Amino acid sequence: MKEIFNTMFLFTLLAVTGSCSNEDMIPVNGEQKAGKVVIRSYNALQDSLQIVVNGKPLEIGNHDAFVKRIVKDYEFVFYDNQEKNIEIINKVTREKLHSYNFSPHFPVDTLSFYHKDGMWIDDVLASKPGTLSAAGRTGYRFIFPTMNRYSNSGYDGPVDAIIRKVNGQLMGIAENITKENFSPFVEFAYGAPPILQVELVKHGTQESYINGQQVIIQMVMQNNKSRLIVLDEKANVDGSFSGVDGTINLADYFDF
Prior knowledge:
Blueprint: H1 2-18, E1 32-43, E2 49-53, E3 56-57, E4 68-79, E5 84-90, E6 96-102, E7 108-111, E8 113-116, E9 119-122, E10 137-143, E11 159-165, E12 170-177, E13 186-189, E14 195-202, E15 216-220, E16 225-235, E17 241-249
Parallel strand pairs: 1-7, 1-8, 10-16
Antiparallel strand pairs: 1-4, 2-3, 2-5, 5-6, 8-9, 10-13, 11-12, 11-14, 14-15, 16-17
């Protein structure tokens, strides 16, 4: 009798463990679909970031926290049509910076962001640099994620970037720059001297987006280069607005 009982117990145990995975006890006889998230991101902070998948830090090589470039093709399985959750966490402060849900209805997806103090640009790979129409030209698209961070201008509409040479010659206008979206592509012929003066104005006007204060950024043209420029408000040590920086070019950090 004891031998019969032990045999039945063994068969029951095998039946239970055989229907579950060893790692997280997820039933393997449910509906399954292969999933993949292509991660191409950049963290410009000194604090490292963790990419947490359903509560567990994702590892790349032997690391589970990252600064600068983050590259990973994360492959997994969707079980029973359940979404996969990915959170981005500051490892030092434990602050949750962003959360994403990936659906089995789109089993191959992309996670691409640029992160800097007070700045988060999402879906970077969806905003490709413009294609130059010929050699000997230069081109730009702009985004302004920190608009009004220090200036408190009171204007929250799109801005235009009026691009001139230092002699005043108009080279082009990049229109409809917002916090979330890059402007349409503008290109023009490269020529010396390569210094540009970029003035930020309310869309469709010649009026500065900050009342009574002209905002001009100095930039350097690059021949045969198409750039994705991030405009970034800066402050003095007392927190007052000091101007706008235009040195971040996302084309330097991502492969499009």
